[in-house]
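Appendix B. Raw example, untouched.
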Amino acid sequence: MSEHIVTLGPVRTAGLVASSSLLLAGAAWAVRAGWEVRLAGAGEPASGPPDQGDGRHRTLTSLENGYHLVSSAGGVITVVCAIAFLVWLGRVRGNARLLSGRAPRYSGLWVLLGWVLPVANLWIPRGIVAGAYRDSAGERPLPRAVNVWWGLWLIGTFSGVGLIYRNSTDELIARAYDNVWPLVLSDLALVGAAVAGAMVVRAVTRVQTEREGEDFVRAEAGAHV
């Protein structure tokens, strides 16, 4: 066995980017919710919904066209946010291993797979984030924001009208005309999840940056000749 002196990886910038992108994504979902309320207030045109069936689509109103643009922009922002969050999570997970001196509960594959595998995505991402905080913060209690973030994320994502949609944008417009509040409440849950998620990112980043500059010993197996 050989020993190497290592230091914590930098997380301050990654944390700032991740928390800022979460807040930006939350703002995008808030705009989307507001646009859905505007659609409901305007009411469905006499010509009916945008998708008229049998592959026929009528010309969109300016308000409907705006909703398409808002939805597309929100989708791009959400992808950027996801990338920034995963980069940050990978870094704090590695630092947490140094700080605690033990391997994380979940292997590195779960940093990605935990979000997409059915059933596992109900708890593993929260477990990775909570584990990174506990391994970094010692005896400090887990911030309440972690459970708030995860609860709102599950509501907003799996409510049937949230982040994982089966409906096209035109179908969502029709739903806004018919019964807007399930859409709005789901969007607002995602807004809350984004804000709470930014608080979680800052909390985990803070406990790790407090120990920047410390040296840690990492034992590695030596090469056999």
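End of appendix B.
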